[in-house]
Amino acid sequence: MLLEGSCHCQAVRFSVESHQPCPFMRCYCSICRKTAGGGGYAINLGADYRTLKVTGRRHLGVYQARIDDARGRRTSTGQRHFCKRCGSALWLYDPTWPELVHPHASAIDTPLPAPPQAVHAMLGSRAGWVEVAARPGDDCFEDWPDVSLAAWHERHGLRL
């Protein structure tokens, strides 16, 4: 599926091909919550990095989060792209998985298919004010689930 997206001020526009366009996974980690806003979580999609086309690149900024964990303080390899003019979160690219790019569902202008269920990830990091609106059949995880975006789509017969 061809996904077309943009920032709020339209300075950055992009398109990308996705085999996993269903916005099902809500990430409640502090990085997503603070950089993407919304309901205390972000929803990222999976797409083919080789097909990413961008106009307005001069307006792009990149943020790499600092992470404190058992390995100490380090900089995330994830590159969170945003519009420097309006601040819209656009996509995440991580060179650890060079074939993938993860656009934020909130930046996609193309109508997306409704997910039959949701996965709520990183609930152990959610803010206390966030109410998890899990429906019957939703999967909830305190940490990161062991299911990939591709595997979830495949399991639900949603591979395009």
Automatic annotation (TrEMBL):
Keyword list, A-Z: Lyase, Metal-binding, Transferase, Zinc
Superkingdom field: Bacteria
Pfam families given in the database record: GFA (PF04828)
Residue span, CENP-V/GFA domain: 3-138
MF annotations from Gene Ontology: carbon-sulfur lyase activity; metal ion binding; transferase activity
Family: Belongs to the Gfa family.
Descriptive protein name: Alanine acetyltransferase
